[in-house]
Design a protein that fits this description.
Blueprint lengths: L13 H4 L3 H13 L5 E3 L2 H7 L16 E4 L2 E3 L1 H8 L7 H13 L12 H17 L9 H16 L6 H14 L1 H13 L6 E5 L5 E5 H9 L1
Antiparallel strand pairs: 1-3, 2-3, 4-5
Helix pairs in contact: 7-9
């Protein structure tokens, strides 16, 4: 069994103090024997081996602290908050917990710590607000480009390289110089190749091309 945090202050908690010795042992047993996602595989023969007869436990005391997610599994919601705080899908250990919770159907009723549909809707609202601050050049101010630009924004977020408002505005100005058809061709290519920037080929003496990303071009302008 892996090591895990324990709350020593539980001995001062009025709820815990109100439990009988058997119920106290049962609560500690659950916390020690659930998996790292707070899921306990119901096993009352094992409980009775360590604690005593099942009918000596008053399950009413645990009604708001333990959820039955299936006939054979219980879930302890507060275990997640205490052991991990907010779950971050980018953290490998947390990602494992999230997968288990989703598999067992135990995410319902949890605090919004997992990136889900409601959070994505909030992100969309933020993007809409961001659109109000960005001025699309006339050549690009069409629904087709707006949808394409939203995909590029999402791509940059997933690469953990979101654009600043200034960078986004400068990028749009650079794209406008090349036209809508260039953008429709180039942006999907950049996304498909996993590039962090769009490639702007510029003719140079000797037929060489300057393949700099938007970020590099803007950095050059700011020097």
């Amino acid at each position: 069994m892996a090591k895990r945090f324990t709350a020593t202050e539980k001995w001062l908690d009025p709820w815990f103090c109100s439990l009988s010795p058997v119920n106290k042992l049962f609560w500690i047993f659950l916390l020690d024997n659930c998996d790292h996602a707070g899921i306990w595989q119901v096993n009352f023969p094992l409980v009775e081996f360590h604690i005593g007869k099942k009918n000596s436990i008053n399950f009413d005391h645990f009604e708001n602290r333990v959820l039955q997610v299936s006939e054979s599994k219980w879930f302890i919601p507060k275990f997640i908050e205490f052991q991990y705080g907010k779950l971050n899908p980018a953290n490998k250990a947390h990602a494992s917990v999230i997968r288990i919770l989703e598999k067992e159907g135990a995410t319902k009723g949890l605090p919004r710590v997992i990136h889900g549909p409601q959070d994505k809707d909030k992100d969309k609202d933020k993007d809409k607000d961001k659109d109000k601050d960005i001025v699309f050049p006339p050549e690009l101010n069409v629904p087709e480009f707006h949808a394409l630009w939203a995909e590029w924004r999402q791509h940059r977020k997933e690469k953990r390289k979101p654009m600043t408002p200034l960078q986004e505005q400068k990028s749009l100005e650079q794209i406008a110089k090349r036209g809508l058809s260039w953008a429709i061709n180039q942006i999907p290519i950049s996304i498909a190749n996993g590039w962090q920037g769009l490639i702007f080929p510029e003719n140079k003496p000797g037929g060489k091309k300057d393949q700099r990303s938007i970020s590099e071009i803007i950095a050059g302008l700011e020097d």
